[in-house]
UniProtKB/TrEMBL annotation:
Belongs to the TolB family. Pfam families: PD40. PANTHER family: PROTEIN TOLB, PROTEIN TOLB HOMOLOG. This is Tol biopolymer transport system component.
Length: 265
């Protein structure tokens, strides 16, 4: 999607594999979606999927990011842990935090030093956390009973953007820095997965119909939106939701972002 013109361009389509959640490579040349528990890349000019070797990591889900230098991909695996993969060699980043705790990755800091993730405990409570990309101590950013998701760093590295039900039963967009939490949207729709543009000019996100529980797949009237200086701009209406735009998906120049739609045929 070209945010200046509002024109979208088809890069890849398939009836054989369910692709989700494209990242955009820092060099601007590749989109990195997941599918069938694997990670792939496809040229932004179109073409076929190329599998990215993950070094024996368990099957992954649709929560993955690329380091700012493009050398490492960080993935969330179905075993509940986070892994870093560099040149096909994997290492586990996450810690053992007790039975039932799961890591869901969403962001990497502009310096590449810190990962932002959602931690879900055995009671299915979710909070925003960070962890050093090299591995280390988990740091809670939120610690409450509200349902939080989609934790992603802003371009300044100070704010972490996320969605939460802390203001109402309909998830809205927020950002947090230290003890300061700011609400960014307040409307009747259910707003998920805020993705700040690299230049800070806009936030792309997905918006579900009012009353939607969670962020399900295969929903009609899912809207891709931009939040620009407090104003909402409707970009596209798709059949989708889960998998449409879960992860950072802006081009390095903030001109384009990538998303997935699941048309019914």
């Amino acid at each position: 999607m070209d945010v200046r013109t509002g024109v979208s361009r088809l890069v890849f389509a398939s009836q054989e594999i369910l692709v989700e959640a494209p990242n955009w490579s820092p060099d601007g040349k590749w989109l990195l979606p997941n599918g069938d528990g694997k990670l792939f890349r496809v040229s932004v000019d179109g073409g076929e999927l190329e599998e990215i070797p993950l070094g024996g990591v368990p099957p992954i889900n649709n929560d993955h990011v690329v380091s700012p230098d493009g050398e490492t991909v960080y993935v969330s695996a179905e075993d509940g842990h986070l892994y870093a993969v560099t040149a096909g060699v994997a290492r586990r980043v996450s810690n053992e935090r007790g039975a039932g705790f799961r890591y869901y990755l969403h962001g990497v800091s502009p310096s590449g030093s810190t990962l932002a993730y959602i931690g879900m405990d055995s009671a299915r409570n979710t909070n925003v956390w960070t962890i050093p990309a090299a591995g280390g101590i988990d740091v809670p950013v939120t610690d409450d009973e509200f349902a939080d998701d989609g934790a992603e760093f802003g371009p300044d590295g100070e704010w972490i953007y996320f969605n939460s039900e802390r203001a109402s039963a309909n998830a809205q967009l927020f950002r947090v820095a230290g003890d300061v939490v700011e609400q960014l949207t307040d409307d009747e729709r259910v707003n998920w997965f805020p993705h700040p543009a690299p230049d800070g000019s806009a936030i792309a996100y997905v918006s579900f119909p009012p009353g939607t529980a969670g962020h399900p797949a295969d929903v009609e009237d899912v809207r891709v939106r931009l939040l620009e200086q407090g104003e909402i701009r409707e970009i596209a209406t798709v059949f989708g939701g889960q998998g449409t735009m879960n992860v950072p998906s802006w081009s390095p120049d903030s001109r384009f972002f990538a998303y997935v739609a699941y048309p019914v045929r």
